[in-house]
Amino acid sequence: MQTIKDKIKETGLKATPQRIAVYKAMQCLGHASADMVAEQLKEVYPSLTVATVYNVLESFIQAGLITRRFSSNNKMYFDINTYEHVHLYNAAKDSYEDYDDPKLLKLVTDYFNNKEIDGFVVKNIEIQLVGIKI
Prior knowledge:
Helices cover 40% and strands 18% of the residues.
């Protein structure tokens, strides 16, 4: 299994202790805001600011290590899972859960691969189902 340090280095980023800690926190949290990651790390890194965490997360996006999500209330979340998947957004708890449904992804992707939208090129398809978990 590839270590976090190697995974970060492989993207061309330096594997600093802060980057390693932020990535580990994202692995634990799965989907998280910069505030949530900073909260997770405050005991080990009390001087680590939310701004620094946000900058580290942004560098991870640029490197392809994580992706960005926006909740229904426009709060920014980061996702550790970069493979194609559907998101279930729980509006009551303002939280995400991954939902793997290859048939749904194929259906939507095939539909848009065969559909021309005048003056628009589809680059990526993200599916987010909004609801309340009961």
